[in-house]
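Repro case for the chain-ordering regression, as requested:
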Amino acid sequence: SQQGEEDPQALSIQEGENATMNCSYKTSINNLQWYRQNSGRGLVHLILIRSNEREKHSGRLRVTLDTSKKSSSLLITASRAADTASYFCATGSNFGNEKLTFGTGTRLTIIP
Amino acid sequence: DAGITQSPRHKVTETGTPVTLRCHQTENHRYMYWYRQDPGHGLRLIHYSYGVKDTDKGEVSDGYSVSRSKTEDFLLTLESATSSQTSVYFCAISGWGQGLYEQYFGPGTRLTVT
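-- result from build under test --
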């Protein structure tokens, strides 16, 4: 079963706008990670946030984590055509965080 | 792709035949993983390895076996391929960084079982 569920499943926005996607999970976690997948390629790690952190930034990416609500959000600011991809959240549990459980992903399309 | 290769990249095989997929890394990472990716299911863990000759099952391990005789190689075998195993298979690796495990993925193998 999937630990993470992303919302929305698909998102289309104009280039330059901000994109927000959400992830909900079910059990306690050690950390939560976001990955990007371009069509036909492997996943690429974007950012990791620990369970005791609330917000983290990396370039145009901002991730928040609310462990009380078991949810996370990924914000991409000033979107570019190259951001078109699928985005997945993945959680590492407290009982062996060498394994990750992935969600089903959000398909983001940036319209030039 | 962080020094990870997968072979073959594409394969078409018939139901009932054995198939072996290979993952090779040059990063000397301890952990290696096999996932399958299907529409609507995201990535699901098949098996993973935490060292040479040390492996464990994942969420969807039925019909699959793995072996790791060297740090750099992790093999996934479908003993008798079925049409339900048509999928894209990804290998991933991770090491130890501040007690957390970021994973790095290979390019994938597209397997079609006819």
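Ordering looks correct now. Chain A touches chain B through 26 residues (CB under 8 Å).
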